[in-house]
Amino acid sequence: MVMVSQAKESSRNYYVHIPFKRVSVIGLGYIGMPTAAILASRGIKVIGVDINPKVVETINGGKIHIIEPELDAIVQTVVLSGKLLATTKPETADAFVIAVPTPFKEKHEPDLSYVKTAAQSIAPVLEKGNLVILESTSPVGTTEQLASWLAEKRPDLQFPDQADESADIQIAYCPERVLPGRILRELVENDRVIGGLTKRCARRAMELYKIFVQGECVITDVRIAEMTKLTENSFRDVNIAFANELSMICEKLDIDVWALIQLANRHPRVKILQPGPGVGGHCIAIDPWFIVSAVPEYAQLIRMAREVNDSKPHYILTKIREKATRFKAPIIACLGLSFKADIDDLRESPSVDIVKELIAGNVGKLLVVEPYIEALPPSLNGNVGVELVDLEDALIQADIIVLLVNHKVFYDVDRKALEGKVVIDTRGIWK
Ligand code: SAJ
Predict the structure, then answer these.
(1) pLDDT confidence of 188, banded at 50, 70, 90?
(2) Residue 313, ligand 1, Cβ within 6 A
(3) Domain range holding 194?
(4) pTM of whole model > 0.90?
(5) What value does the mean pLDDT take over residues 38-66?
(6) Which of 188, 215, 242 is the last residue of a domain?
(7) Helix runs in 254-407, H state only
(8) Is the dihedral of CA 355, 360, 366, 368 positive or negative?
(9) What atom in ligand 1 is closest to the CA of residue 235?
(10) Do 276 and 366 fall into the same domain?
(11) What residues contact residue 28 under an 8 Å CB cut-off, 6+ apart?
């Protein structure tokens, strides 16, 4: 399908415009939750569905289970006004937005089981005229697969691959692209890429996004839309890998990599990203593998970038171990556990992996500082020789201070508190 602008599209009328009164969001995580809240804040009745009863209970109590600036206030308002209701079982709606996880299995193969379960759970309540949108980051071909899972369960309905523009159900893919920590703003301001199984599907989906998106909604086909998302995150991964590789090269050459990057970035066409302890989160560390697993023979650079970024935590670990040998009973402070600054999300966090390995290797007593959590995650909790402490305690007690996450509070550390300590600053904030 050729890209078409919204203006051109709106002049064509294949169907009668039906406003969205009830929208169901399947999966109330970091994307589904804010999406549900923002739709509800625009006056739409939103049914949020999650398989976790605890999450449902929290939301119906007007609270949230994740940390994201300003989200708590919006959720409280829309739950109180009755616009947002959470449940564990899908109900009928005009549109369904699926925002469930798409992790990978062994050998980096995509795991679409959550999408399949979501499809199977909404299939019984689908009605003629419904729109189904997949937002989860997905390998190319997933939306077509979603359509066939729905069709299997609902032979009484016509799907776009059977009936083209006159299908009973419209199906589209529209990847989320928001940055954790800025989700509410980016949900509204970012452009959206909308891929429809047919043009009518895409236009119907665009009507839904226009309820809250101020950025441009650009229509394309589903495969391009799926690949767009994977491309965006792979682009970032490759660029972070470049920075991480540089940091290791520079250490060998006795060069301050952060000073180097600042200087190189003065070139008008150079924009090097920042090295760190590795790449975490549920997106950039995973999505590039969806391209690699689909076309391994050509996705060489993308695979290599993943490998470079995945090797960075080991590199930092080796450094910590080496410094620790200087002490009889080293006390090591690890500052930050989340996968990036100023969020509470520990998913795929290189910092968590580093702490885990330090525990396993019995490298020393570990003091973990993470201002965004109240208890250590289960993977670290209960181990002898590791505790969650506040920043001040860690700085007093530690022999070795490892800065893993550039949380705002860490920038303000009094440099005098670092004197006489071994400092491993993986983010270059204490220069
Ligand atoms: N990181 C670095 N150096 C940098 C930038 C990031 O080491 O210069 C690390 C971070 O510390 C973190 C990881 O990379 O561990 C990923 O962080 P991020 O801020 O680059 O990205 P995410 O995972 O929070 O969000 C990304 C975004 N994608 C792009 O910027 C292309 C976001 O827009 C997507 O919506 C999100 O993935 C997603 O859900 O796919």
Answers:
(1) very high
(2) no
(3) 6-215
(4) yes
(5) 97
(6) 215
(7) 257-264, 287-294, 300-324, 350-360, 391-397
(8) positive
(9) 31
(10) yes
(11) 36, 48, 49, 50, 55, 56, 59, 86
Do both 191 and 261 map to the same domain? no
For ligand 1, is residue 176 a contact (CB within 6 Å)?
A: yes
Average pLDDT, the chain: 94
Report CA-CA distances (Å) from 344 to 51, 197, 340, 347: 22, 36, 9, 9
Buried b (16+ CB within 10 A) or exposed e, 381-393: eeeeebebbebee
> Is the CB–ligand 1 distance for residue 428 below 6 Å?
no
Q: Whose CA is nearest to atom 29 of ligand 1?
A: 233
Instruction: Using pLDDT thresholds of 50, 70 and 90, give the confidence band for residue 16.
Output: low
**Parallel/antiparallel/unpaired status of strands 192-196 and 170-173:** antiparallel
What is the edge-to-edge ordering of all strands in the sheet holding 131-134? 84-87, 45-49, 22-26, 95-98, 131-134, 170-173, 192-196, 217-221
Give the mean model confidence (pLDDT) for residues 240-260. Answer: 98
Q: 331 and 357 share a domain?
A: yes
CB atoms within 10 A of CB 327: 13
∠274-280-282 over CA atoms, to 5°?
A: 130
How many Å apart are CA 137 and CA 288, to the nearest integer?
11
Three-state SS string over 96-125 comes to EEECCCCCECHHHCECCHHHHHHHHHHHHH
Residue type at 402 in one-letter notation: V
- Alpha carbons within 13 angstroms on the beta-carbon side of residue 264 total 13
Q: Give the chain's domain count.
A: 2
290 lines ligand 1 (CB under 6 A): no
Whole-number Å distance, alpha carbon 422 to ligand 1 midpoint, is 29
User: Is residue 91 domain-shared with residue 167, that is, in the same domain?
Assistant: yes
DSSP string, 6-33: HHHHHT--SS------EEEEE--STTHH
